[in-house]
């Protein structure tokens, strides 16, 4: 339970004052397009600033989730998702995800949370990463690579802590900011 | 007085119209009717044109609004999907870390100044 609070705290703390993502163009996720042919289900979301404004005008204030989303997207310039579900394992490799990770690393984003699970042969079985751009433009990227599912979520823009906490209604557990000065994050598990 | 009566009688006496007078009058009557009819149809056509233009503009605007609403609804669905997916993945990594009793090792410099 403590870990949960810590991870939430780290994410929120890092988002505070935040600033993520290269505002100029954001991440190029086109390297993942080739996986569409192999996936049994593909969910792509590409929402630029104009579409976000359009969407926000139609969000229902009476619905808690949508109300949270409305507040959350203030200051966001884009939301991009690439989600692939595969019928069987080994339909993609970490090499397919590497171009995206490389872009993130080359821009100096901070990997604030990482969780890995390895196969017996030492290759990566599953990996979950959360990156933040602490630069001026802001940005958040979540990469989740599971045996039969690959998801990349990229949010271009600045989120506020209090708004992110409202994600509680969307499934994120209630989270608290850690201010005890101790460092946190994940490690590999085998 | 007799002279006056004579002139009056002469003026009021029946006279035959000039030859072809009746035909000319009759010929003119339908001609005038046609002009009125033409003017009437011009007005009707103009009103119809205005109505068609107004209706078309209204229809176009309505289509535009419907299209906009559909785009907004689609964007809305995509946004909620994206936020839910993000929330799910963050929750997943939290649960995994919790289960694995992971050691946290974030670089404090990364979040310096944010606490």
Structural class of chain A: alpha+beta
For the largest interface, the chains and their residue counts are: A-B, 63 and 42 residues
What sort of overall outline of chain B do the alpha carbons produce when their principal axes are compared?
rod-shaped
What would you call the structural class of chain B? mainly alpha
The main sheet of chain A orders its strands as 1-2-6-5-4-3-7
Secondary-structure element order of chain B, N to C: HH
Summarize the structure.
The complex is a heterodimer of chains A (190) and B (115). Chain A is an alpha+beta fold and 190 residues long. Chain A contains 5 helices and 7 strands; from the N terminus they run H-E-H-H-E-H-E-E-E-E-H-E.
Task: Describe the structure in your own words.
The complex is a heterodimer of chains A (190) and B (115). In chain A, strands 1-2-6-5-4-3-7 form a 7-stranded mixed sheet, with helices on both faces. Chain A is built from 5 helices and 7 strands. By secondary structure, chain A is of the alpha+beta class. By secondary structure, chain B is an all-alpha fold. Chain B is rod-shaped, with a radius of gyration of 46 Å. The C terminus of chain B is likely disordered. Chains A and B meet through helix 1, strand 1, helix 2, helix 3 and strand 2 of A and helix 2 of B.
SSE order and pairing:
The complex is a heterodimer of chains A (190) and B (115).
Chain A: H1 2-15, E1 41-47, H2 49-57, H3 64-72, E2 76-85, H4 94-106, E3 110-118, E4 124-132, E5 140-146, E6 149-157, H5 161-165, E7 188-189
Parallel strand pairs in A: 3-7
Antiparallel strand pairs in A: 1-2, 2-6, 3-4, 4-5, 5-6
Chain B: H1 2-12, H2 21-100
Give a quick set of tags describing it.
heterodimer; A: 190 residues; alpha+beta; seven-stranded mixed β-sheet; 7 strands; B: 115 residues; mainly alpha; 2 helices; disordered C terminus
